[in-house]
Amino acid sequence: MSWTTNESEDGVLSKYHSESPLIDESNGGSSGGGVLLKKGPWTSSEDALLVEYVKKHGEGNWNAVQKHSGLSRCGKSCRLRWANHLRPNLRKGAFSQDEERLIIELHAKMGNKWARMASHLPGRTDNEIKNYWNTRIKRRQRAGLPLYPPDLCLQAFQENQQGQNTGGISCGDRGQHDPLQVNSFEIPDVVFDGLKANTEVLSYVSDLTDMSMNTMLLKGMSPQYYSFVPPTIHRQKRLRESSDVFPDSAGCVQNGFPLFDQFQNDPGDKVASSFGASFRPDLDPNKSLLSFDVTQGDHSLPNGNSSASKPIHGAVKLELPSLQYPETDLGTWGTSPPPPVLESVDAFIQSPPPVGAFESDCSSPRNSGLLDALIHEAKNLSSGQKHSDKSKNSSSISPSDMADNGTLNVCENEWDEYREPISPFGHSDTSFMNECFSASGSSLDDPPSAETFTGSVVKPEPVYADLLPYKVRESKRQTDFTRPDALLGSDLFEQSFGCIRGHGIMTDTIATLNGDNSAADYMHLPSASSPLSQEWGFNYCVWNNMPPVCHMSDLL
DNA sequence: AACAGTTTCAACCGCAAGCCA
DNA sequence: ATGGCTTGCGGTTGAAACTGT
Fold first, then answer.
1. Average pLDDT of span A39-63
2. A235 touches strand C (CB under 7 A)
3. Residues 6 or more apart from A98 whose CB is under 8 A from it?
Protein backbone atom coordinates (compact mmCIF):
# COMPACT_ATOMS: atom_id res chain seq x y z
CA MET A 1 0.00 0.00 0.00
CA SER A 2 1.49 3.26 -0.96
CA TRP A 3 0.84 6.74 0.12
CA THR A 4 1.43 10.09 -1.29
CA THR A 5 0.93 13.62 -0.27
CA ASN A 6 -1.62 15.61 -2.06
CA GLU A 7 0.68 18.54 -2.33
CA SER A 8 1.10 17.32 -5.76
CA GLU A 9 -1.75 15.20 -6.81
CA ASP A 10 -0.03 13.64 -9.72
CA GLY A 11 3.48 13.74 -8.55
CA VAL A 12 4.14 11.31 -5.81
CA LEU A 13 6.27 13.06 -3.28
CA SER A 14 6.57 10.27 -0.88
CA LYS A 15 5.53 6.73 -0.77
CA TYR A 16 5.65 4.20 1.89
CA HIS A 17 3.84 1.13 2.79
CA SER A 18 1.41 0.88 5.57
CA GLU A 19 -0.52 -1.86 7.21
CA SER A 20 -3.38 0.42 7.93
CA PRO A 21 -5.95 0.65 5.23
CA LEU A 22 -7.06 4.03 6.34
CA ILE A 23 -5.17 6.92 7.57
CA ASP A 24 -6.27 8.63 10.72
CA GLU A 25 -8.05 11.83 10.10
CA SER A 26 -5.92 13.34 12.77
CA ASN A 27 -3.13 13.30 10.31
CA GLY A 28 -4.72 16.30 8.83
CA GLY A 29 -7.94 16.97 7.08
CA SER A 30 -6.99 19.70 4.78
CA SER A 31 -6.74 18.79 1.20
CA GLY A 32 -4.01 21.25 0.79
CA GLY A 33 -2.08 20.54 3.88
CA GLY A 34 0.27 17.85 2.78
CA VAL A 35 -1.99 15.04 3.91
CA LEU A 36 -0.75 11.63 3.13
CA LEU A 37 -3.04 10.14 0.60
CA LYS A 38 -3.46 6.51 0.21
CA LYS A 39 -2.94 4.76 -3.05
CA GLY A 40 -3.54 1.31 -4.28
CA PRO A 41 -6.50 -0.98 -4.00
CA TRP A 42 -9.53 0.20 -2.16
CA THR A 43 -10.75 -1.56 0.91
CA SER A 44 -14.35 -2.24 1.69
CA SER A 45 -14.31 0.26 4.50
CA GLU A 46 -13.06 2.92 2.16
CA ASP A 47 -15.75 2.01 -0.25
CA ALA A 48 -18.32 2.33 2.46
CA LEU A 49 -17.05 5.74 3.38
CA LEU A 50 -17.17 6.87 -0.18
CA VAL A 51 -20.64 5.55 -0.77
CA GLU A 52 -21.84 7.22 2.34
CA TYR A 53 -20.30 10.47 1.28
CA VAL A 54 -21.88 10.39 -2.12
CA LYS A 55 -25.25 9.58 -0.63
CA LYS A 56 -25.00 12.65 1.51
CA HIS A 57 -23.40 15.09 -0.82
CA GLY A 58 -23.91 13.72 -4.23
CA GLU A 59 -21.34 13.22 -6.92
CA GLY A 60 -18.84 15.85 -7.74
CA ASN A 61 -16.51 18.01 -5.79
CA TRP A 62 -14.35 15.01 -5.30
CA ASN A 63 -11.56 16.85 -3.64
CA ALA A 64 -13.93 17.57 -0.83
CA VAL A 65 -14.46 13.90 -0.17
CA GLN A 66 -11.35 13.72 1.84
CA LYS A 67 -12.46 16.59 4.03
CA HIS A 68 -15.91 15.33 4.70
CA SER A 69 -15.53 11.61 4.73
CA GLY A 70 -12.19 11.07 6.29
CA LEU A 71 -11.04 9.17 3.29
CA SER A 72 -7.39 9.62 2.62
CA ARG A 73 -7.78 9.42 -1.05
CA CYS A 74 -7.33 12.08 -3.59
CA GLY A 75 -10.40 13.31 -5.35
CA LYS A 76 -9.33 11.73 -8.50
CA SER A 77 -9.09 8.36 -6.93
CA CYS A 78 -12.49 8.78 -5.32
CA ARG A 79 -14.10 9.75 -8.55
CA LEU A 80 -12.56 6.82 -10.30
CA ARG A 81 -13.57 4.40 -7.63
CA TRP A 82 -17.09 5.68 -7.63
CA ALA A 83 -17.43 5.72 -11.36
CA ASN A 84 -15.90 2.36 -11.98
CA HIS A 85 -17.06 0.34 -9.02
CA LEU A 86 -19.42 1.96 -6.58
CA ARG A 87 -21.98 3.87 -8.48
CA PRO A 88 -25.33 2.20 -8.87
CA ASN A 89 -26.48 0.43 -11.98
CA LEU A 90 -23.06 -0.75 -12.81
CA ARG A 91 -22.99 -3.90 -14.79
CA LYS A 92 -20.31 -6.24 -13.70
CA GLY A 93 -19.07 -9.37 -15.29
CA ALA A 94 -18.15 -10.36 -18.75
CA PHE A 95 -19.48 -8.49 -21.69
CA SER A 96 -22.40 -10.08 -23.41
CA GLN A 97 -22.21 -10.91 -27.07
CA ASP A 98 -24.28 -7.91 -27.88
CA GLU A 99 -22.07 -5.69 -25.85
CA GLU A 100 -18.97 -7.09 -27.44
CA ARG A 101 -20.37 -6.54 -30.84
CA LEU A 102 -21.41 -3.09 -29.97
CA ILE A 103 -17.99 -2.27 -28.69
CA ILE A 104 -16.43 -3.40 -31.89
CA GLU A 105 -18.92 -1.41 -33.80
CA LEU A 106 -18.41 1.64 -31.70
CA HIS A 107 -14.70 1.38 -31.84
CA ALA A 108 -14.80 1.20 -35.56
CA LYS A 109 -16.82 4.31 -35.43
CA MET A 110 -15.13 6.28 -32.72
CA GLY A 111 -11.70 4.92 -32.21
CA ASN A 112 -10.39 5.02 -28.71
CA LYS A 113 -13.13 7.14 -27.32
CA TRP A 114 -13.80 4.99 -24.34
CA ALA A 115 -15.98 7.40 -22.51
CA ARG A 116 -18.16 7.95 -25.50
CA MET A 117 -18.37 4.28 -26.07
CA ALA A 118 -19.27 3.74 -22.45
CA SER A 119 -22.16 6.10 -22.84
CA HIS A 120 -23.61 3.66 -25.32
CA LEU A 121 -23.22 0.76 -22.97
CA PRO A 122 -25.32 1.34 -19.90
CA GLY A 123 -23.68 0.16 -16.77
CA ARG A 124 -20.31 -0.23 -18.34
CA THR A 125 -17.35 1.95 -17.69
CA ASP A 126 -14.85 3.38 -20.03
CA ASN A 127 -12.17 1.53 -18.18
CA GLU A 128 -13.87 -1.78 -18.71
CA ILE A 129 -14.31 -1.12 -22.35
CA LYS A 130 -10.77 0.02 -22.71
CA ASN A 131 -9.46 -3.06 -21.00
CA TYR A 132 -11.66 -5.24 -23.08
CA TRP A 133 -10.49 -3.64 -26.26
CA ASN A 134 -6.86 -3.80 -25.36
CA THR A 135 -7.24 -7.43 -24.52
CA ARG A 136 -9.00 -7.98 -27.76
CA ILE A 137 -6.26 -6.31 -29.67
CA LYS A 138 -3.69 -8.50 -28.08
CA ARG A 139 -5.63 -11.63 -28.71
CA ARG A 140 -6.39 -10.88 -32.26
CA GLN A 141 -2.92 -9.74 -32.96
CA ARG A 142 -1.56 -12.89 -31.61
CA ALA A 143 -4.01 -14.91 -33.56
CA GLY A 144 -3.34 -12.88 -36.65
CA LEU A 145 -6.93 -11.93 -36.98
CA PRO A 146 -8.28 -8.64 -38.13
CA LEU A 147 -9.54 -6.34 -35.49
CA TYR A 148 -12.77 -5.76 -37.24
CA PRO A 149 -15.02 -8.20 -38.95
CA PRO A 150 -14.71 -7.79 -42.67
CA ASP A 151 -18.37 -7.12 -42.87
CA LEU A 152 -17.89 -4.08 -40.78
CA CYS A 153 -15.48 -2.74 -43.29
CA LEU A 154 -17.75 -3.58 -46.11
CA GLN A 155 -20.61 -1.95 -44.39
CA ALA A 156 -18.61 1.13 -43.80
CA PHE A 157 -17.68 1.20 -47.39
CA GLN A 158 -21.21 0.69 -48.55
CA GLU A 159 -22.39 3.37 -46.27
CA ASN A 160 -19.91 5.64 -47.84
CA GLN A 161 -21.04 4.76 -51.27
CA GLN A 162 -24.61 5.29 -50.34
CA GLY A 163 -23.62 8.63 -49.02
CA GLN A 164 -22.01 9.36 -52.31
CA ASN A 165 -24.96 8.23 -54.27
CA THR A 166 -27.35 10.28 -52.28
CA GLY A 167 -25.24 13.28 -52.77
CA GLY A 168 -23.68 13.53 -49.40
CA ILE A 169 -21.09 12.15 -47.19
CA SER A 170 -22.26 10.17 -44.31
CA CYS A 171 -21.03 12.19 -41.50
CA GLY A 172 -19.96 10.78 -38.26
CA ASP A 173 -21.49 10.54 -34.94
CA ARG A 174 -24.13 13.12 -34.96
CA GLY A 175 -25.27 12.25 -31.57
CA GLN A 176 -28.50 10.90 -32.87
CA HIS A 177 -27.61 7.47 -33.76
CA ASP A 178 -27.83 5.16 -30.90
CA PRO A 179 -26.16 1.92 -31.68
CA LEU A 180 -28.12 0.28 -28.97
CA GLN A 181 -31.12 0.70 -31.08
CA VAL A 182 -29.51 -0.71 -34.08
CA ASN A 183 -30.61 -4.16 -34.68
CA SER A 184 -27.86 -5.69 -36.57
CA PHE A 185 -24.32 -5.00 -37.27
CA GLU A 186 -25.26 -1.76 -38.71
CA ILE A 187 -22.91 1.13 -38.61
CA PRO A 188 -24.69 3.82 -40.48
CA ASP A 189 -22.32 6.60 -39.90
CA VAL A 190 -19.23 4.71 -39.36
CA VAL A 191 -15.98 5.92 -40.66
CA PHE A 192 -16.39 9.40 -41.70
CA ASP A 193 -16.26 11.29 -38.50
CA GLY A 194 -12.84 12.44 -39.20
CA LEU A 195 -13.61 13.45 -42.69
CA LYS A 196 -16.06 16.13 -42.01
CA ALA A 197 -15.07 19.56 -43.04
CA ASN A 198 -11.94 18.33 -44.58
CA THR A 199 -12.28 18.72 -48.24
CA GLU A 200 -8.91 17.35 -48.97
CA VAL A 201 -9.75 14.18 -47.25
CA LEU A 202 -13.18 14.13 -48.65
CA SER A 203 -11.73 14.18 -52.04
CA TYR A 204 -10.32 10.81 -51.51
CA VAL A 205 -13.58 9.59 -50.26
CA SER A 206 -15.06 10.43 -53.56
CA ASP A 207 -12.28 8.58 -55.21
CA LEU A 208 -13.48 5.55 -53.46
CA THR A 209 -16.37 5.32 -55.72
CA ASP A 210 -13.95 4.47 -58.44
CA MET A 211 -13.19 1.17 -56.99
CA SER A 212 -15.30 -1.57 -55.76
CA MET A 213 -14.89 -3.28 -52.50
CA ASN A 214 -13.88 -6.29 -54.42
CA THR A 215 -11.07 -4.41 -55.92
CA MET A 216 -10.07 -3.13 -52.61
CA LEU A 217 -10.11 -6.43 -50.94
CA LEU A 218 -8.71 -8.43 -53.72
CA LYS A 219 -6.01 -6.18 -54.91
CA GLY A 220 -3.96 -6.21 -51.89
CA MET A 221 -6.41 -5.33 -49.25
CA SER A 222 -5.55 -8.31 -47.25
CA PRO A 223 -7.40 -8.84 -44.04
CA GLN A 224 -4.61 -7.34 -42.15
CA TYR A 225 -5.43 -4.12 -43.81
CA TYR A 226 -8.40 -3.80 -41.69
CA SER A 227 -6.80 -4.98 -38.59
CA PHE A 228 -5.79 -1.45 -38.35
CA VAL A 229 -3.46 -0.30 -35.79
CA PRO A 230 -5.30 1.13 -32.93
CA PRO A 231 -4.73 4.78 -32.47
CA THR A 232 -3.68 4.09 -28.95
CA ILE A 233 -0.18 3.47 -29.98
CA HIS A 234 2.02 6.34 -29.35
CA ARG A 235 3.67 7.90 -32.22
CA GLN A 236 7.04 7.27 -30.81
CA LYS A 237 6.18 3.73 -30.17
CA ARG A 238 4.88 3.37 -33.65
CA LEU A 239 8.08 4.63 -35.00
CA ARG A 240 10.01 2.21 -32.98
CA GLU A 241 7.79 -0.65 -33.92
CA SER A 242 7.79 0.31 -37.50
CA SER A 243 11.49 0.17 -37.63
CA ASP A 244 11.67 -2.91 -35.54
CA VAL A 245 9.36 -4.59 -37.84
CA PHE A 246 11.53 -4.16 -40.81
CA PRO A 247 14.89 -5.32 -39.88
CA ASP A 248 17.31 -5.70 -42.64
CA SER A 249 17.64 -9.01 -44.20
CA ALA A 250 16.02 -10.91 -41.43
CA GLY A 251 12.57 -11.93 -40.75
CA CYS A 252 9.16 -11.34 -41.91
CA VAL A 253 9.55 -8.55 -44.31
CA GLN A 254 12.48 -9.89 -46.01
CA ASN A 255 10.90 -13.07 -46.91
CA GLY A 256 7.63 -11.44 -47.42
CA PHE A 257 5.92 -13.95 -45.31
CA PRO A 258 5.39 -12.21 -42.11
CA LEU A 259 2.90 -14.35 -40.45
CA PHE A 260 4.91 -17.39 -40.90
CA ASP A 261 7.46 -16.07 -38.58
CA GLN A 262 5.11 -17.10 -35.96
CA PHE A 263 6.22 -20.55 -36.65
CA GLN A 264 9.57 -19.84 -35.36
CA ASN A 265 8.67 -20.44 -31.82
CA ASP A 266 6.98 -23.55 -32.68
CA PRO A 267 7.72 -26.95 -33.91
CA GLY A 268 6.31 -25.43 -37.01
CA ASP A 269 9.70 -23.98 -37.46
CA LYS A 270 10.03 -26.74 -39.84
CA VAL A 271 7.15 -25.34 -41.70
CA ALA A 272 8.71 -21.97 -42.01
CA SER A 273 11.91 -23.37 -43.26
CA SER A 274 10.15 -25.68 -45.56
CA PHE A 275 8.43 -22.74 -47.08
CA GLY A 276 11.62 -21.05 -47.76
CA ALA A 277 13.18 -24.15 -49.09
CA SER A 278 10.25 -25.07 -51.18
CA PHE A 279 9.57 -21.82 -52.82
CA ARG A 280 12.76 -20.06 -53.38
CA PRO A 281 13.94 -21.94 -56.38
CA ASP A 282 10.82 -21.41 -58.35
CA LEU A 283 10.03 -17.91 -57.55
CA ASP A 284 10.05 -15.29 -60.09
CA PRO A 285 10.33 -12.03 -58.28
CA ASN A 286 8.72 -10.30 -61.16
CA LYS A 287 5.67 -12.35 -60.83
CA SER A 288 5.48 -13.11 -57.26
CA LEU A 289 4.74 -10.84 -54.46
CA LEU A 290 7.29 -12.64 -52.53
CA SER A 291 10.90 -12.87 -52.43
CA PHE A 292 12.21 -15.64 -50.36
CA ASP A 293 15.74 -15.05 -51.15
CA VAL A 294 17.21 -14.28 -47.84
CA THR A 295 20.27 -12.90 -49.45
CA GLN A 296 18.42 -9.84 -50.44
CA GLY A 297 19.42 -7.85 -47.52
CA ASP A 298 19.77 -4.80 -49.63
CA HIS A 299 16.29 -5.28 -50.95
CA SER A 300 17.60 -5.39 -54.40
CA LEU A 301 16.15 -7.76 -56.81
CA PRO A 302 17.76 -10.03 -59.26
CA ASN A 303 16.41 -8.02 -62.10
CA GLY A 304 17.74 -4.94 -60.53
CA ASN A 305 14.38 -3.42 -60.69
CA SER A 306 13.71 -2.19 -57.33
CA SER A 307 15.01 -1.41 -54.01
CA ALA A 308 12.96 -1.68 -50.97
CA SER A 309 9.74 -2.06 -52.69
CA LYS A 310 9.59 -5.44 -54.18
CA PRO A 311 10.72 -7.56 -51.35
CA ILE A 312 8.26 -6.02 -49.06
CA HIS A 313 5.38 -6.41 -51.31
CA GLY A 314 4.01 -9.05 -49.18
CA ALA A 315 4.56 -6.92 -46.21
CA VAL A 316 2.75 -4.04 -47.68
CA LYS A 317 -0.05 -6.20 -48.72
CA LEU A 318 -0.32 -7.43 -45.26
CA GLU A 319 0.08 -4.12 -43.70
CA LEU A 320 -2.09 -1.54 -42.29
CA PRO A 321 -2.83 1.62 -44.04
CA SER A 322 0.20 3.70 -44.31
CA LEU A 323 -1.65 6.81 -43.60
CA GLN A 324 -1.16 6.43 -39.96
CA TYR A 325 2.56 6.37 -40.26
CA PRO A 326 3.61 8.98 -42.68
CA GLU A 327 6.25 10.15 -40.34
CA THR A 328 8.07 6.92 -40.32
CA ASP A 329 11.15 6.95 -42.35
CA LEU A 330 11.18 4.27 -44.91
CA GLY A 331 14.87 4.24 -44.82
CA THR A 332 14.97 3.00 -41.33
CA TRP A 333 13.48 -0.28 -42.23
CA GLY A 334 16.68 -1.85 -43.06
CA THR A 335 18.73 -0.37 -40.33
CA SER A 336 17.01 -1.35 -37.21
CA PRO A 337 18.22 -4.33 -35.35
CA PRO A 338 16.12 -7.38 -35.72
CA PRO A 339 13.48 -7.48 -33.08
CA PRO A 340 12.38 -10.49 -31.18
CA VAL A 341 10.36 -12.53 -33.52
CA LEU A 342 7.08 -12.36 -31.77
CA GLU A 343 7.33 -8.72 -31.09
CA SER A 344 8.08 -8.33 -34.65
CA VAL A 345 5.03 -10.17 -35.68
CA ASP A 346 2.83 -8.33 -33.33
CA ALA A 347 4.24 -5.05 -34.26
CA PHE A 348 4.05 -5.96 -37.83
CA ILE A 349 0.42 -6.53 -37.54
CA GLN A 350 -0.01 -3.36 -35.71
CA SER A 351 2.35 -1.03 -37.38
CA PRO A 352 2.33 -0.75 -41.05
CA PRO A 353 5.30 0.35 -42.89
CA PRO A 354 5.15 3.76 -44.33
CA VAL A 355 4.62 3.81 -47.98
CA GLY A 356 5.93 6.82 -49.64
CA ALA A 357 3.67 6.69 -52.59
CA PHE A 358 0.78 6.37 -50.25
CA GLU A 359 1.60 9.20 -48.08
CA SER A 360 2.24 11.56 -50.84
CA ASP A 361 -1.23 11.99 -52.03
CA CYS A 362 -3.45 12.40 -49.12
CA SER A 363 -3.57 13.84 -45.78
CA SER A 364 -4.07 11.31 -43.15
CA PRO A 365 -7.16 11.07 -41.06
CA ARG A 366 -4.93 9.86 -38.38
CA ASN A 367 -7.19 10.65 -35.56
CA SER A 368 -10.30 9.32 -37.02
CA GLY A 369 -11.82 6.00 -36.38
CA LEU A 370 -9.89 3.09 -37.56
CA LEU A 371 -12.12 2.36 -40.42
CA ASP A 372 -11.24 5.71 -41.75
CA ALA A 373 -7.97 4.20 -42.49
CA LEU A 374 -9.55 1.62 -44.66
CA ILE A 375 -11.18 4.23 -46.74
CA HIS A 376 -7.99 6.09 -46.89
CA GLU A 377 -6.19 3.03 -47.99
CA ALA A 378 -8.76 2.38 -50.62
CA LYS A 379 -8.22 5.78 -51.99
CA ASN A 380 -4.55 5.24 -52.00
CA LEU A 381 -4.93 2.05 -53.87
CA SER A 382 -7.17 3.71 -56.30
CA SER A 383 -4.95 6.64 -56.89
CA GLY A 384 -1.97 4.38 -57.05
CA GLN A 385 -3.48 2.59 -59.94
CA LYS A 386 -4.01 5.81 -61.68
CA HIS A 387 -0.50 6.97 -61.21
CA SER A 388 1.44 3.85 -61.58
CA ASP A 389 4.19 5.47 -63.53
CA LYS A 390 4.95 7.84 -60.78
CA SER A 391 5.53 5.13 -58.34
CA LYS A 392 7.46 2.81 -60.53
CA ASN A 393 10.54 4.80 -60.04
CA SER A 394 9.95 5.18 -56.42
CA SER A 395 11.86 3.22 -53.93
CA SER A 396 8.74 2.72 -51.98
CA ILE A 397 5.82 0.52 -52.50
CA SER A 398 2.96 1.95 -54.31
CA PRO A 399 -0.44 0.62 -54.89
CA SER A 400 0.36 0.32 -58.50
CA ASP A 401 3.12 -2.02 -57.67
CA MET A 402 0.54 -4.24 -56.31
CA ALA A 403 -1.93 -3.56 -59.00
CA ASP A 404 0.60 -4.18 -61.67
CA ASN A 405 1.73 -7.29 -60.11
CA GLY A 406 0.63 -10.16 -62.17
CA THR A 407 0.39 -12.33 -59.19
CA LEU A 408 -2.25 -10.21 -57.81
CA ASN A 409 -4.22 -10.51 -60.90
CA VAL A 410 -3.90 -14.19 -60.73
CA CYS A 411 -4.94 -13.95 -57.21
CA GLU A 412 -7.95 -11.96 -58.06
CA ASN A 413 -8.97 -14.03 -60.96
CA GLU A 414 -8.59 -17.24 -59.19
CA TRP A 415 -10.23 -16.02 -56.12
CA ASP A 416 -13.21 -15.10 -58.13
CA GLU A 417 -13.79 -18.75 -58.54
CA TYR A 418 -13.90 -19.21 -54.85
CA ARG A 419 -15.69 -16.08 -54.05
CA GLU A 420 -18.84 -16.40 -52.14
CA PRO A 421 -21.49 -15.66 -54.70
CA ILE A 422 -23.96 -14.37 -52.24
CA SER A 423 -21.77 -12.17 -50.24
CA PRO A 424 -21.71 -8.74 -51.81
CA PHE A 425 -17.99 -8.72 -52.08
CA GLY A 426 -17.33 -12.34 -52.10
CA HIS A 427 -16.48 -12.18 -48.50
CA SER A 428 -12.89 -11.95 -47.77
CA ASP A 429 -11.09 -15.17 -47.60
CA THR A 430 -10.00 -14.20 -44.19
CA SER A 431 -13.40 -14.03 -42.83
CA PHE A 432 -14.18 -17.09 -44.72
CA MET A 433 -11.37 -18.99 -43.21
CA ASN A 434 -11.78 -17.45 -39.85
CA GLU A 435 -15.29 -18.39 -39.84
CA CYS A 436 -14.64 -21.79 -41.16
CA PHE A 437 -12.24 -22.62 -38.47
CA SER A 438 -13.93 -20.99 -35.65
CA ALA A 439 -17.43 -21.51 -36.67
CA SER A 440 -18.28 -23.93 -33.97
CA GLY A 441 -18.35 -21.25 -31.38
CA SER A 442 -21.64 -19.84 -30.54
CA SER A 443 -20.43 -17.00 -28.48
CA LEU A 444 -18.41 -14.16 -29.69
CA ASP A 445 -15.65 -15.54 -27.64
CA ASP A 446 -16.43 -19.10 -27.95
CA PRO A 447 -14.82 -20.63 -30.92
CA PRO A 448 -12.83 -23.77 -30.66
CA SER A 449 -9.82 -23.47 -28.54
CA ALA A 450 -6.88 -21.93 -30.18
CA GLU A 451 -3.28 -21.98 -29.39
CA THR A 452 -0.80 -19.64 -30.70
CA PHE A 453 2.48 -20.57 -32.04
CA THR A 454 4.08 -19.01 -29.07
CA GLY A 455 2.85 -21.92 -27.16
CA SER A 456 0.72 -19.83 -24.91
CA VAL A 457 -2.95 -20.22 -24.77
CA VAL A 458 -4.92 -17.59 -26.43
CA LYS A 459 -8.44 -16.87 -25.65
CA PRO A 460 -10.44 -17.84 -28.66
CA GLU A 461 -11.50 -15.07 -30.87
CA PRO A 462 -15.02 -14.04 -31.43
CA VAL A 463 -17.01 -15.61 -34.14
CA TYR A 464 -19.61 -13.59 -35.79
CA ALA A 465 -21.91 -16.37 -36.54
CA ASP A 466 -24.42 -14.19 -38.20
CA LEU A 467 -21.73 -12.87 -40.42
CA LEU A 468 -20.84 -16.20 -41.78
CA PRO A 469 -21.09 -16.27 -45.49
CA TYR A 470 -23.93 -18.24 -46.78
CA LYS A 471 -21.77 -20.99 -48.05
CA VAL A 472 -20.08 -21.38 -44.75
CA ARG A 473 -23.30 -21.45 -42.92
CA GLU A 474 -24.55 -24.04 -45.30
CA SER A 475 -21.48 -26.09 -44.91
CA LYS A 476 -21.62 -25.65 -41.24
CA ARG A 477 -24.86 -27.47 -41.15
CA GLN A 478 -23.28 -30.46 -42.66
CA THR A 479 -19.95 -30.36 -41.05
CA ASP A 480 -18.98 -30.66 -37.49
CA PHE A 481 -16.43 -27.95 -37.27
CA THR A 482 -15.45 -28.92 -33.86
CA ARG A 483 -13.93 -31.98 -35.32
CA PRO A 484 -10.79 -31.33 -37.20
CA ASP A 485 -11.06 -34.51 -39.10
CA ALA A 486 -14.51 -33.67 -40.23
CA LEU A 487 -13.48 -30.24 -41.23
CA LEU A 488 -10.45 -31.38 -43.05
CA GLY A 489 -12.44 -33.83 -44.95
CA SER A 490 -15.26 -31.56 -45.74
CA ASP A 491 -16.07 -29.97 -49.02
CA LEU A 492 -15.66 -26.68 -47.42
CA PHE A 493 -12.15 -27.41 -46.51
CA GLU A 494 -11.56 -28.72 -49.94
CA GLN A 495 -12.85 -25.54 -51.43
CA SER A 496 -10.94 -23.41 -49.09
CA PHE A 497 -7.66 -25.05 -49.61
CA GLY A 498 -8.10 -26.36 -53.04
CA CYS A 499 -6.22 -23.38 -54.22
CA ILE A 500 -3.13 -24.46 -52.47
CA ARG A 501 -3.36 -28.00 -53.42
CA GLY A 502 -0.72 -29.45 -55.48
CA HIS A 503 2.44 -28.26 -53.94
CA GLY A 504 2.24 -29.86 -50.61
CA ILE A 505 2.45 -26.80 -48.48
CA MET A 506 -0.70 -27.55 -46.72
CA THR A 507 0.18 -31.10 -46.40
CA ASP A 508 3.50 -30.31 -44.94
CA THR A 509 2.06 -27.77 -42.65
CA ILE A 510 -0.59 -29.99 -41.32
CA ALA A 511 1.72 -32.87 -41.13
CA THR A 512 4.18 -30.81 -39.24
CA LEU A 513 1.62 -29.58 -36.87
CA ASN A 514 0.17 -32.98 -36.49
CA GLY A 515 3.46 -34.59 -36.26
CA ASP A 516 2.46 -37.24 -38.68
CA ASN A 517 1.49 -37.78 -42.23
CA SER A 518 -2.20 -37.74 -41.77
CA ALA A 519 -2.52 -34.41 -43.44
CA ALA A 520 -1.67 -35.86 -46.75
CA ASP A 521 -4.58 -38.14 -46.40
CA TYR A 522 -6.86 -35.36 -45.45
CA MET A 523 -5.80 -33.26 -48.31
CA HIS A 524 -5.88 -36.01 -50.85
CA LEU A 525 -2.82 -34.45 -52.19
CA PRO A 526 0.32 -35.43 -53.77
CA SER A 527 2.93 -34.06 -51.55
CA ALA A 528 5.64 -31.58 -51.89
CA SER A 529 6.80 -32.72 -55.21
CA SER A 530 4.28 -30.80 -57.20
CA PRO A 531 5.31 -27.77 -59.13
CA LEU A 532 4.86 -24.48 -57.49
CA SER A 533 5.53 -21.82 -59.93
CA GLN A 534 2.20 -21.57 -61.60
CA GLU A 535 0.24 -21.44 -58.49
CA TRP A 536 2.46 -19.59 -56.22
CA GLY A 537 1.03 -16.22 -56.73
CA PHE A 538 -2.38 -17.28 -55.89
CA ASN A 539 -1.16 -19.52 -53.24
CA TYR A 540 0.52 -16.70 -51.63
CA CYS A 541 -2.54 -14.67 -51.89
CA VAL A 542 -4.43 -17.28 -50.09
CA TRP A 543 -1.93 -17.65 -47.37
CA ASN A 544 -1.53 -14.03 -47.16
CA ASN A 545 -5.16 -13.41 -46.74
CA MET A 546 -5.72 -16.44 -44.75
CA PRO A 547 -5.47 -15.71 -41.19
CA PRO A 548 -3.05 -17.04 -39.89
CA VAL A 549 -1.44 -19.97 -40.14
CA CYS A 550 -2.12 -19.95 -36.54
CA HIS A 551 -5.54 -20.94 -37.38
CA MET A 552 -4.31 -24.17 -38.49
CA SER A 553 -3.94 -24.83 -34.86
CA ASP A 554 -7.61 -24.32 -34.55
CA LEU A 555 -8.02 -27.09 -36.93
CA LEU A 556 -5.82 -29.51 -35.24
C1' DA B 1 3.19 -28.66 -5.41
C1' DA B 2 6.07 -25.27 -7.26
C1' DC B 3 7.36 -22.37 -10.59
C1' DA B 4 7.08 -19.48 -14.71
C1' DG B 5 4.70 -17.21 -18.15
C1' DT B 6 0.51 -14.90 -19.50
C1' DT B 7 -3.78 -12.49 -18.98
C1' DT B 8 -6.91 -9.56 -16.70
C1' DC B 9 -8.28 -5.64 -14.46
C1' DA B 10 -8.12 -2.02 -10.93
C1' DA B 11 -5.82 1.93 -10.20
C1' DC B 12 -2.64 5.53 -11.25
C1' DC B 13 -0.65 9.17 -14.13
C1' DG B 14 -0.43 13.04 -17.17
C1' DC B 15 -2.80 15.97 -19.98
C1' DA B 16 -6.43 18.90 -21.57
C1' DA B 17 -10.81 21.16 -21.44
C1' DG B 18 -14.11 23.70 -18.98
C1' DC B 19 -15.43 26.67 -15.42
C1' DC B 20 -14.98 30.50 -12.49
C1' DA B 21 -13.11 34.22 -9.86
C1' DA C 1 -7.07 37.87 -20.29
C1' DT C 2 -5.35 34.93 -16.90
C1' DG C 3 -4.54 31.61 -13.52
C1' DG C 4 -6.25 28.17 -10.39
C1' DC C 5 -9.27 24.45 -9.70
C1' DT C 6 -12.11 20.57 -11.00
C1' DT C 7 -13.35 17.11 -13.94
C1' DG C 8 -12.87 13.88 -17.58
C1' DC C 9 -10.27 11.18 -20.70
C1' DG C 10 -6.94 8.00 -22.55
C1' DG C 11 -2.67 5.53 -21.76
C1' DT C 12 0.07 2.83 -18.75
C1' DT C 13 1.32 0.08 -14.86
C1' DG C 14 1.50 -3.55 -11.68
C1' DA C 15 -0.62 -6.93 -8.71
C1' DA C 16 -3.68 -10.73 -8.71
C1' DA C 17 -5.51 -14.48 -11.06
C1' DC C 18 -5.01 -17.89 -14.23
C1' DT C 19 -2.77 -21.52 -16.96
C1' DG C 20 0.70 -24.61 -18.46
C1' DT C 21 4.82 -27.27 -17.42
1. 88
2. no
3. none
